[in-house]
Automatic annotation (TrEMBL):
It comes from the Eukaryota. It comes from Homo sapiens (Human). Pfam families: FERM_N. Coiled coil: none annotated. PROSITE patterns: FERM_1, FERM_3. This is FERM, ARH/RhoGEF and pleckstrin domain protein 2. Residues 44-134 form the FERM domain. InterPro entries: FERM_CS, FERM_domain, FERM_N, RAC1-GEF, Ubiquitin-like_domsf.
């Protein structure tokens, strides 16, 4: 292709003509506070209330299924009979709802940063056919 000959100049904006500095924005950080690295912004920090009323924070990726969180909780607590435990959270109408293991967490919980999940005991296994008489 042919090249265009001539001289070029950069058009100035109104602020540049008046000698204004480039805007840097307004920071809402406290003095000494820094932004989190990009890697940490991609993780959710979910608060879980355990059976002894202690709070634990678990880091998961937002698109993970509920089973990922359940597995992390069970590993930290060294639970063996995992079928009898589940996670509950309150929806917008303040009803307690079980966390679905097969659905992504961000599809179930509207504001994951503000919610407190609680570990709860299910009094039934997921498959009632597994029950046996003692």
């Amino acid at each position: 292709m042919g090249e265009i000959e001539g001289t070029y100049r950069v058009l100035q904006t109104a602020g540049m003509r008046l000698g204004a500095q480039t805007p840097v924005g307004v920071s809402t950080l406290e003095p000494g506070q820094t932004l989190l690295p990009r890697m940490q912004e991609k993780h959710l920090h979910l608060r879980v209330k355990l059976l002894d009323n202690t709070m634990e924070i678990f880091d998961i990726e937002p698109k993970c299924d509920g089973q990922v969180l359940l597995t992390q909780v069970w590993k930290r607590l060294n639970l063996v009979e995992c079928d009898y435990f589940g996670m509950e959270f309150q929806n917008t109408q303040s009803y307690w709802i079980w966390l679905e293991p097969m659905k992504p967490i961000i599809r179930q919980i509207r504001r994951p940063k503000n919610v407190v999940l609680r570990l709860a005991v299910k009094f039934f296994p997921p498959d009632p056919g597994q029950l046996q008489e003692e």
